[in-house]
């Protein structure tokens, strides 16, 4: 009889976990979103719990949730309601135990704000036995990509000096070599890049370039590399460095940082700030998996890397979490991913994008797949893949090979989808930017545009501009080109290459200007200047920051423009200073240039750009007739002739910086009457020849009014 009692007791102890699990999955179909997923495994010990019903919860729900572990017992923690009370989040006061089964219960006493009764809820999930996740390091990243790239991390990679159109002597010695190979009417805007030294992932720079390859901003990043430097839709700048994304404002001040939560390290591939202030991020999740039970020859203790997608609200609460462990199979990887290896990266997520219907697109490089995910439920909507994708649901109508090991999926304004196809499994290998039109109902994909180029083994991007041109970042191709701007007909508008062994993850082009300091006007025009003669104009720099700035560099490309301003010039907070530019054409023609007004520091540059326009006598008449703006006016002086007083009437359309100067018949500047910001309106300006800067003889004199848009 004792034997029976002991046997019965032993039997009950064995069955407790089974009944525990069985009783926890009730009414889950009544809820819109649950995280962790009911019945899921391999969950982080630091995970939060997310419950979304649909209609907003009443605050009574906060007292009706119970969280218990089969090892630790009941968990205390913080309960909050977010997203207009539609989402309930539980943060435990301490970590869940490794290997623990956690049950979640919500009693039927809970209601919505409409007094609607909420069904009781019971579900459970399991915590992982392993705790392998660590911050991403260059060594970790290289292990993931170097076997594909074929690079030896022990090689040395020298850096080269800048070799653009005209050498910028104020750049650091180790600044990346940037060469413009093709210049064919590129779009306005600035390139955002973050190049680093190839297979050692060091010596990174955040760089904003003009179309000539000249930096209007750079910041040297010390230590580990930085990537994905870009402007978000809200106008802020972000970049990845040291296991998080940093957020900068238009003065380049770091104002925030963004990182994944729930115990997952932040991955470098994507940071997407949404219009509602939320952020989408991803993480790579390492778990020990018995691959010998999944594929023949698999390792019993393989480290397999999964993908985690998180949406953080404006207070950095995780309000949505999606895990590849719950939706993908490890065997979904393409044939070239060795599932018998000791480490397996079967997903390799590298992009997140919002579709126009509010759902999420993700790019999984090692599955050759673009997946659309319901952002409310986490369920997969569809799967689009290339020739070797295991789960492609689409028929490619006019592209038999599809895409392979792709990057940077983007939804376009016209409804099409654009991505960078690395083409690792194409035969022969080639890379391209490719655009598809998808029929999501009939599951067809039609190729509508592509631009092929040299093979890029890893990384890369393709972004569509508002003028329908495409910016292509060629990723890890260690050669020419690195960035291309292409028209829809395939015309190459700009091509930029970097020095040997320099790599850039993604390339972007945005309109941009900093607000640390302003320049007035932002355009200087010089007209009717004979070759060999000179004419000067002034501009003002205003310090908008809370600290002093030092203007210590004036840079332009051509010799027709120069400055005799003494540098450096220190400008206190809120103050301004005037500078002078001289135009001296050597031959007849039209001269276009850009003047970079620079504040250079040891590891950083900030610059504003002034457009320079100049023309000589033979081009003046046509230029004048084409460019005169009737809304600005400068009247004939009165009286005329005069001695010694006369007056000018001017009409200004908009608030702008105004320059009004007197010249003699030789083009020599006699007097500056106005050199300041003036509001829109009519003004009467007087000139006294007797008090001019030098004694004036009888003769003919000219006066010229210059604004940012009118001369």
Distance between the termini: 110 Å
Basic shape = elongated
- Output the CATH topology of the largest domain: Neuraminidase
CATH architecture annotation name of the largest domain: 6 Propeller
What is the domain total for the residues?
4
* Class from helix and strand fractions: mainly beta
The helix count comes to 4
Task: Round the mean pLDDT to the nearest integer and report it.
Answer: 87
Strand content: 35-45%
Q: Helicity, in percent? A: under 10%
The biggest beta sheet, please? 8 strands, mixed
What is the number of beta strands?
A: 53
CATH-assigned homologous superfamily of the largest domain: TolB, C-terminal domain
Radius of gyration, in Å, reads 32 Å
Unreliable segments of 5+ consecutive residues:
1-23, 149-166, 619-630
The first-level CATH class name of the largest domain: Mainly Beta
Please tell me about this protein's structure.
- This protein has four helices and 53 strands.
- The chain is 7% helix and 42% strand.
- Strands 10, 12, 13, 37, 39, 42, 46 and 47 form an eight-stranded mixed β-sheet that branches. Strands 9-35-34-33-32 form a five-stranded antiparallel β-sheet, with no helix packed on it. Strands 18, 19, 20, 21 and 22 form a five-stranded mixed β-sheet that branches.
- The chain has four domains: 10-15 and 631-707, Immunoglobulin-like, CATH 2.60.40; 38-127, Sandwich (Immunoglobulin-like), CATH 2.60.40.1220; 138-152 and 159-510, Neuraminidase (6 Propeller); 517-615, Immunoglobulin-like (Sandwich), CATH 2.60.40.10.
- The protein is mainly beta.
């Amino acid at each position: 009889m004792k034997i029976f009692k002991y046997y019965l007791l032993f039997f009950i102890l064995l069955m407790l976990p089974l009944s525990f699990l069985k009783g926890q999955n009730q009414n889950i179909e009544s809820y819109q979103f649950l995280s962790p997923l009911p019945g899921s495994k391999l969950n982080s010990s630091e995970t939060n719990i997310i419950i979304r019903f649909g209609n907003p919860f009443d605050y009574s729900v906060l007292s009706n949730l119970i969280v218990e572990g089969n090892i630790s017992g009941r968990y205390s923690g913080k309960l909050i309601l977010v997203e207009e009370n539609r989402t309930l989040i539980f943060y435990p006061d301490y970590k869940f135990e490794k290997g623990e089964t956690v049950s979640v219960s919500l009693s039927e006493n809970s209601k919505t704000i409409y007094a609607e009764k909420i069904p009781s809820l019971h579900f459970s999930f399991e915590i992982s036995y392993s705790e392998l996740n660590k911050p991403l390091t260059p060594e970790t990243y290289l292990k993931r990509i170097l076997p594909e790239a074929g690079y030896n991390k022990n090689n040395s990679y020298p850096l080269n000096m800048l070799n653009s159109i005209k050498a910028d002597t104020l750049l650091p010695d180790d600044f990346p070599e940037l060469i413009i190979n093709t210049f064919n009417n590129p779009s306005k805007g600035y390139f955002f890049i973050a190049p680093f030294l190839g297979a050692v992932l060091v010596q990174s720079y955040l760089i904003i370039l003009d179309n000539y390859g000249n930096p209007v901003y750079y910041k040297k990043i010390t230590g580990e590399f930085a990537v994905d430097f870009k402007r978000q839709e809200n106008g802020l700048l972000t970049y990845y460095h040291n296991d998080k994304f940093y957020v900068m404002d238009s003065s380049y001040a770091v104002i925030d940082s963004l990182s994944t939560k729930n115990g997952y390290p932040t991955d470098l591939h994507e940071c997407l700030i949404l219009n509602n202030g939320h952020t989408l991020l991803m993480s790579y999740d390492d778990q020990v998996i018995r691959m010998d039970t999944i594929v023949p020859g698999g390792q019993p203790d393989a480290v397999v890397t999964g993908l985690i997608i998180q949406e953080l609200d404006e207070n950095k609460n995780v309000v949505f979490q999606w895990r590849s462990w719950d939706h993908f199979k490890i065997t979904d990887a393409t044939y070239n991913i060795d599932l018998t290896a000791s480490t397996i990266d079967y997903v390799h997520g590298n992009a997140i994008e919002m579709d126009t219907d509010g759902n999420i697109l993700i790019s999984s490089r090692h599955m050759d797949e673009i997946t659309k995910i319901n952002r409310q439920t986490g369920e997969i909507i569809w799967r689009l893949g290339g020739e070797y994708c295991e789960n492609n649901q689409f028929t490619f109508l006019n592209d038999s090979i599809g895409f392979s090991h792709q990057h940077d999926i983007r939804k376009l304004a016209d409804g099409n989808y654009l991505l960078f196809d690395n083409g690792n499994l194409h035969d022969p290998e080639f890379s391209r930017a490719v655009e598809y039109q998808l029929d999501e109902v009939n599951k067809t994909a039609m190729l509508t545009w592509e631009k092929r180029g040299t093979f890029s083994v890893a990384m890369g991007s393709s972004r569509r501009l508002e003028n329908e041109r495409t910016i292509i970042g060629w990723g890890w191709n260690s050669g020419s080109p690195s960035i291309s701007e292409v028209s829809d007909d395939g015309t190459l508008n700009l091509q930029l290459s970097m020095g040997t062994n320099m790599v850039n993850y993604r390339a972007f082009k945005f309109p941009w200007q900093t607000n640390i300091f302003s320049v007035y006007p932002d355009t200087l025009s010089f007209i009717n200047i004979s070759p060999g003669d000179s004419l000067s104009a002034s501009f003002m720099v205003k310090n908008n920051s809370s600290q002093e700035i030092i203007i210590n560099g004036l840079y332009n490309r051509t010799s027709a423009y120069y400055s005799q301003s003494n540098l450096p010039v220190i400008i206190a907070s809120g103050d301004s200073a005037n500078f002078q530019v001289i135009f001296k054409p050597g031959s007849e023609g039209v001269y276009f240039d850009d003047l970079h007004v620079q504040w250079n520091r040891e590891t950083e540059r900030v610059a504003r750009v002034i457009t320079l326009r100049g023309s000589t006598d033979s081009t003046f008449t046509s230029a004048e007739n084409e460019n005169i703006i009737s809304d600005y006016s400068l009247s004939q002086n009165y009286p005329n002739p005069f001695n010694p007083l006369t007056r000018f009437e001017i009409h200004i359309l908009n608030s702008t910086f105004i320059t009004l100067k007197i010249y003699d018949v030789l083009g020599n500047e006699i007097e500056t009457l106005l050199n300041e910001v003036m509001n829109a309106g009519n003004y009467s300006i007087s000139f006294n020849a007797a008090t001019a800067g030098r004694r004036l003889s009888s003769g003919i004199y000219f006066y010229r009014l210059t604004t940012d848009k009118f001369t």
